[in-house]
Design a protein that fits this description.
alpha/beta; 7-stranded mixed beta sheet; two-stranded antiparallel ribbon; 39% helix; binds pyridoxal-5'-phosphate
């Protein structure tokens, strides 16, 4: 493809179907997916700074390099992080999550975090188990999942598992060069973002929604990678997610 004009009248012909088709990979039926010109780390930050407020209490666990980095980001962004340290090579401690959620009668915990595949160790955590722990405690906290190295490669079901923010990136299951950060959000996360007060600018949901709804972006998108994403989504659909 020659370089193309991201303000051209024909550009939405590429982008609008992408916004719909990428939802299938996340199994997100009722929410939406933001496509940022960033890596997965940018989508981590987009999730936290749009959906949460400064000082919000969050429940996280650390058992490898990537869960460690997400905790570090949450602390540096000013959240009140309850971090459970686990031996590296293990995964999300479901029993301890369940205990913390049951004990939190005042619902101070606003979000629970799960790194689905801790790339550093290759350990897969149980996302459905996190949802079950939330439901068993009748707890309204949002569920955030890092799916950078799992979505498109390992079973992931956003709608069924009640995942509110699912993060991924172009360079793993999506088979592309690095450079796109994906954030798939539920309706509940979108509603939370409307009242959350953390500052954000580049990753603003509001700016993205306004531009994306018309098929555009608030700033220069990675047009070549969007063409690549079209090809990779077609390959995924052709082979079938279940077969992959
Ligand atoms: C599980 C996981 N989370 C987050 C990241 C960070 O993503 P990125 O390097 O695209 O910013 C990675 C990168 O490998 C990862 O594997």
């Amino acid at each position: 493809m020659p370089m193309e004009d991201m303000r051209a009248a024909s550009f939405p012909k590429l982008t609008l179907p992408l916004f719909e088709d990428i939802k299938r990979v996340f199994k997100n039926e009722t929410g939406r997916v933001f496509i940022y010109p960033s890596s997965g780390t940018g989508a981590w930050e987009a999730a936290m700074t749009n959906v949460l407020s400064p000082g919000d209490r969050v429940l996280m666990s650390r058992f490898g390099q990537f869960s460690h980095l997400w905790v570090d980001m949450a602390e540096r962004l000013g959240f009140d992080v309850d971090v459970i340290d686990c031996e590296w090579g293990t995964g999300v401690p479901l029993d301890l999550y369940a205990e913390r959620l049951r004990a939190d009668k005042a619902h101070r915990i606003k979000a629970v975090f799960c790194t689905q595949n801790e790339t550093a160790t290759g350990v897969i955590s149980d996302v459905a188990g996190c949802r079950a722990a939330l439901d068993a405690a009748n707890h309204p906290a949002l569920l955030f999942v890092d799916g950078v190295s799992s979505i498109g490669s390992i079973d992931f079901r956003q709608e069924e598992w009640g995942v509110d923010c699912a993060v991924s990136g172009s360079q793993k299951g999506f088979m592309l060069p690095a450079g796109l950060g994906f954030l798939s959000v539920s309706k509940k996360a979108l509603a939370a973002a409307r009242v959350a007060t953390h500052r954000h600018c580049y990753f603003s949901f509001e700016d993205m929604i306004r531009a994306n709804d018309a098929g555009y972006f608030p700033y220069t998108p990675a047009t070549q990678l969007l063409r690549g994403l079209r090809a990779s989504l077609d390959l995924i659909a052709e082979e079938g997610l279940e077969n992959i």
